[in-house]
Structure formats: structure tokens, C-alpha cells
Amino acid sequence: MVLDVKDETGEVVRWTLETGSPSSLMTDGWTKNSVVAGDVITVDANPARNGTKFGRLLRVTKADGTVLTWGERNRASQ
Question: What is the pLDDT of residue 76?
Fold first, then answer.
């Protein structure tokens, strides 16, 4: 997933977040229209340790309050 994010200064910065395979996202309730270009979302992610604008997606909260997760069941069982 590629996101354009406003930083603290208001500058737009591009982030790339990895997710699971399409089939694993579908298992967690995602569809091809869950998030579309132009949606305003809040993302929780684990950022890369090297400081690059890359990370692992954990959760998406849409403007209407809908929460989409990925792999939460797997993390809970570890």
C-alpha cells in the first residue's frame, strides 16, 4: 500500500506499507474496495528500523470509523 501522508510541517511524504497476500487480507474481511485512492484514513504500522518511509501495516481506520486489520489473529496467538 502506498500512502501520501502530511508530516508535522504539512509537507506530503510518500510511505510504502507492506501487507499480507490478497487472500490473507480477504480472510480478515478486506475487499478490493476496502480502501480506494482518495480515502482519508488513519494507519497504525510498524515503521522500518532504518528510518526509511516503509513499514508493516497493522490497522486502518476509515473516516466512518470502520477498522480493518491484517494478521491480528496471528499476532494474538504468538
Answer: 52
What is the DSSP secondary structure assignment for residue 78, as one 8-state letter?
Answer: -
> How many Cβ atoms sit within 10 Å of the Cβ of residue 56?
14
Cβ-defined contacts of 28-35 (< 8 Å, 24+): 28/68, 28/69, 28/70, 28/71, 28/72, 28/73, 29/68, 30/68, 30/70, 34/60, 34/68, 35/1, 35/60, 35/62, 35/68
Residue 57, classed as helix, strand or coil, is strand
Confidence (pTM): 0.80
